[in-house]
Amino acid sequence: MSVASSPRMGSIDALRGLTVAAMLLVNNPGDWGHVYAPLLHADWHGFTPTDLIFPLFLFIAGVSMAFSLVPRGHDPAARPALRRGLLQRALRILVAGALLHLLAWWLFELPAYRLWGVLQRIAVCVAVVGLLAIHTRARTQWGVMGVLLSGYGLVLLSGASLDPWVNVASRLDTALFAPMLYTYTSETGLGHDPEGLLSTAGAIATTLLGLRAGAWLRTGQLARLGGLALACVALGALATLWLPLNKHLWTPSFVLWAGGLSVLALLAAHLLVDRWGAPALGRRFGVNAIAAYLGSSAMSLVLVASGVWATAYAWLAARLPSASLASLCCALAFVALWWGVMWALDRRRIYLKI
Q1: Of 100, 199, 289, 310, which has the fewest Cβ atoms less than 10 A away?
Q2: Distance in angstroms (rounded) separating the CA atoms of residues 290 and 276
């Protein structure tokens, strides 16, 4: 017997699409020296609106698996094919991330190839949480999340410091992968990668939280979703007594805080789009999410390396009242360009699944 996946909810595609659009907005300012503060990540400890974007994307990936994998995973005969398809997709995303970094390494003649990255982290989280979605029950998934948060928190606290470069996560990444990191200084032997190995434990917990929230959304348990959001925000704030909010390290407090806000966003999107009939803004980005991120990232690299991006920013900066406004307008124009690409693909019912 085969079990069909649950009907697709417009709110999930819309929220995923708005998240991808936000990624493009914050990743492509006209000039990094002139960016409005809310569009920047916190330097280290702390939280800005931009810090919510990536965890929200991973959270939505977990929500989607509650609709696409969990119902079909109830049939033991369907699990091998589900598992194979899941792992093949994760591998394709991983390879796409590796090729994107290869392009950056070649265009900018970087001193070292970067091993980890956004797409690589997505691939790992999708693979791990997808397998849990197919093969385990809710109680096990909650248990794994608890072990990840408590275990990772203890590992971070076991280090002498949570400061940049010298925290446990950075030191482990440097020991294993230097110089193939986001930042690495050969003179000091210190490095850090915000998508490194150890901090992926927190990212997997974020995706698991999305899986459980998606299960409640699929069964219409909205009161539980509201309670989960409030509980996560409260626990995240409480956890800052021991571990600060830190996206670079993806601390347990950050998982809970950002997770609570993500649940609230999901609940709001569901009520607005699915219940009250509001337009599913962002849906066109959402149905081609990875393709939009990959294509726009590759285009951005080429524009920056060729000097076209700097020329466009300089032209705008000479005509607008402030450099920061010109920088924002560059980013908005880039998002609008890719919205047009996604609109054209959706109009022709072309969905590029990696």
Answers
A1: 310
A2: 28
